[in-house]
Structures are given as structure tokens and as C-alpha cells.
């Protein structure tokens, strides 16, 4: 009958789409072999989830951290959302890393305790005049924050050969794991006096030099161009632009007089919570790489200065 034909076709197509989308191991192989930065996130997954190369075994002692980095992977590469269930934490790890992965289920139930730990840090965020040294110390004294910070510093260490993409992935993981108030406190911390310890703490928290310093310095126009070529960065840049700088229209880009007016005047920026969240989301992408407007032809100078201001000036939030 026609009904049974439709049933057979439905089952057939469902099985095909399931086979294509739910094989995590196949997706992982693709992820590692495609040169789009996915490998750098996968390297952090291996580190956090404690995957051993020998025998491809894993012992995820930090089940919460492991789930969080898997969530970051699924957020950045949505194809993984078809293979990793997002409701059950235990399922999330075993689906992605395979049945050979042994996890202590009790670790997952610690989630509430750890959230309380970080919420205590969140309360500190409302205290005024926090220097980067204060913020750094508070993070180190907080069990959860310190664990996340240690991983990030290990990956971004300048003592070993720095891998910029991997360090950027670690920064994205670090800031996405923090409650918004804590991430904001770390992002906007500064050093009031010329205090060397504070400046060192600031560089650590803000990914210097590994995640932000390229030699030679690229032009800010080049940074935007490279970002537009990368799916993840492009998405973050467009969100940042729409949430913070929607008054700076593209019509102005080709009009030097308009650009000069914007740069000299007080560029309108909506420094609300959505804008701050979009700005923090840029950390760990090309958009945070230091850039310059020197040695550019005069015709490109004004647009470059506009981009430099948008990406690196904190005047929007001061």
C-alpha cells in the first residue's frame, strides 16, 4: 500500500540522516582534519577530559569541566549538537568520547556545590576599584576558578612554544565558564598604579602575549578581514557590532569626512549588558589580536582607526 511505501521511505531516510549526523567519532575525525581552528578546541577537550593517546582511553576525573568544554565545542561547531545529547551530562561525555571512557557519576552531582563556589566570587564582582591583582588572587583562592585558570595558563604558557589558536580556544573556554559578573570583573580589571605584579596579573588574565601578540603586528583592516573569513569569528564580530556599534553604519566606511567625525567625536556605543557580553565573547578570537594602522595608504587610514577604536578602546565602557 501507499502508506507502507511511505513508512519504508521515512525509516530509510531517517536512518541515513541519523547515520550521517550522530556518529561523534566521524565528526571528531572531520573536526581534527579540517583547518578551521576546530583542532585547537579539540586539543583542549583532550586536556580537560584527560584522554590518553595510548589506547584512546580516558578517565574524566573533572566531569564538570569535561562537559563544559564539550558544550563549548558544540556551541562553536553546531554539527556536534546532532551527536551530543545536551540534556544528560553523563550521556554527553560518553557519546563524544565513547564507551571506553570511565567517569565517576558522583563528580557530576557536584555541579551545585561548584556553582555556589563561583557565585561567592560573583558577589565580589560588585565591589568597586578591583585591580587585576585583586581579581587574580580571588580567582586563585576559589577552587573552581583556579582549576579553570590553571588549564588556561598551562595552554597559554610562554615557557613552551605558544600555539595562538590553542591559547585562544582556552581563553574562550575560560571566559565562557565564568558567571557573567566574574567574566566582566576579569575583562575590565586594570592597574591604577605602575605596579609590576598587577600588570603581570593583567597580562595573564587577558591572554598576553600568546593569544594577542602577532609579529609583525597586522593592520586592523587585516584583522577584520581574517575574522570575516572564519565562521566562528564572523558570528562573534557581527553580534558585537549589532549589540555595541549599531549606530556606526557601513554607509560611513567609504566616506572619509563621516569617519573623521566619528573618530574625533564621541562614537555612539550602547554599553549595556548585551554589549558587554558581546565584547567579552570576542576574547579568544582574532578580534582581540593587537593591530596597527601604521604603514597603510592614506585612503585606508580613517577606516583602520575606526576599527582600532571599536576593537581595542574601552572608552565605550568607562
From TrEMBL:
**Keyword Metal-binding found:** no
Location relative to the cell = Cell membrane
By sequence similarity, the record places it as follows: Belongs to the GDNFR family.
> This chain belongs to which protein, by name?
GFRAL protein
**Mind telling me which SMART domains this protein's record contains?**
GDNF
Q: Pfam families this protein is in?
A: GDNF
Kindly indicate whether the keyword S-adenosyl-L-methionine belongs to this entry: no
Q: Could you list the residue ranges forming a coiled coil in this record?
A: none
Q: Name one GO molecular function term.
A: signaling receptor activity
Q: Which GO terms describe its biological process?
A: cell surface receptor protein tyrosine kinase signaling pathway; nervous system development
- N-terminal signal peptide: 1-21
Domain GDNF/GAS1 positions: 24-101, 132-210, 220-316
A cellular component term, taken from the record's GO annotations: receptor complex
What InterPro entries does UniProt report for this protein, alphabetically?
Answer: GDNF/GAS1, GDNF_alpha, GDNF_rcpt
Arranged from A to Z, the UniProt key words for this protein are:
Cell membrane, Glycoprotein, Membrane, Receptor, Signal
Amino acid at each position: 500500500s501507499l502508506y507502507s511505501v511511505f513508512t519504508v521511505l521515512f525509516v530509510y531516510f531517517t536512518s541515513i540522516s541519523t547515520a550521517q549526523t550522530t556518529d561523534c567519532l566521524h565528526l571528531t575525525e572531520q573536526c581534527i582534519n579540517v583547518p578551521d581552528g576546530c583542532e585547537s578546541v579539540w586539543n583542549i577537550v583532550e586536556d580537560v577530559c584527560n584522554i590518553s593517546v595510548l589506547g584512546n582511553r580516558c578517565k574524566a576525573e573533572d566531569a564538570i569541566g569535561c562537559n563544559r568544554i564539550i558544550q563549548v565545542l558544540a556551541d562553536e561547531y553546531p554539527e556536534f549538537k546532532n551527536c551530543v545529547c545536551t540534556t544528560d551530562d553523563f550521556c554527553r561525555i560518553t557519546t563524544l568520547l565513547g564507551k571506553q571512557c570511565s567517569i565517576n557519576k558522583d563528580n557530576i552531582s557536584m555541579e551545585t556545590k561548584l556553582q555556589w563556589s563561583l557565585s561567592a566570587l560573583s558577589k565580589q564582582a560588585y565591589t568597586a576599584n578591583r585591580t587585576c591583582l585583586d581579581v587574580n588572587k580571588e580567582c586563585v583562592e576559589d577552587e573552581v576558578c583556579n582549576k579553570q585558570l590553571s588549564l588556561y595558563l598551562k595552554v597559554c604558557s610562554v615557557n613552551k612554544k605558544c600555539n595562538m589558536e590553542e591559547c585562544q580556544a582556552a581563553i574562550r573556554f575560560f571566559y565562557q565558564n565564568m558567571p557573567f559578573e566574574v567574566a566582566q570583573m576579569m575583562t575590565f580589571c586594570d592597574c591604577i598604579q605602575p605596579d609590576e605584579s598587577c600588570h603581570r596579573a593583567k597580562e595573564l588574565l587577558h591572554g598576553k602575549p600568546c593569544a594577542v601578540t602577532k609579529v609583525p603586528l597586522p593592520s586592523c583592516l587585516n584583522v577584520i578581514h581574517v575574522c570575516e573569513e572564519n565562521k566562528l569569528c564572523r558570528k562573534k564580530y557581527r553580534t558585537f557590532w549589532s549589540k555595541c556599534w549599531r549606530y556606526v553604519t557601513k554607509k560611513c566606511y567609504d566616506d572619509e569626512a563621516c569617519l573623521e567625525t566619528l573618530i574625533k567625536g564621541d562614537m555612539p556605543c550602547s554599553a549595556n549588558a548585551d554589549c558587554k557580553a558581546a565584547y567579552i565573547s570576542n576574547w579568544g578570537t582574532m578580534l582581540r589580536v593587537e593591530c596597527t594602522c601604521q604603514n597603510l595608504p592614506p585612503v585606508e587610514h580613517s577606516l583602520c582607526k575606526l576599527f582600532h577604536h571599536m576593537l581595542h578602546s574601552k572608552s565605550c565602557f568607562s
